[in-house]
Amino acid sequence: MMRSRWNPSKSERPIRYNLVMLVALVSGIAAAGAITAGYQSMAPTGQWYGRTFIGLARGTKQLALTYDDGPNDPHTLRLLEVLARHNVHATFFMIGRYVRQRPDIVRQVIEAGHIVANHTFTHPFLAFQSAADIRQQLSDCRAAIQDAIGAHSNLFRPPFGSRRPTVLRIARELGLEPIMWNVTGYDWSAPPAANIERKCTKQIRGGDVILLHDGGHQQMGADRSQTVIATDNLINRYKSEGYDFVTIPQMMDGRKTIGGNKR
Ligand SMILES: [Zn+2]
Question: Ligand 1 mean position to 94 CA, how many Å?
Answer without folding.
Answer: 8
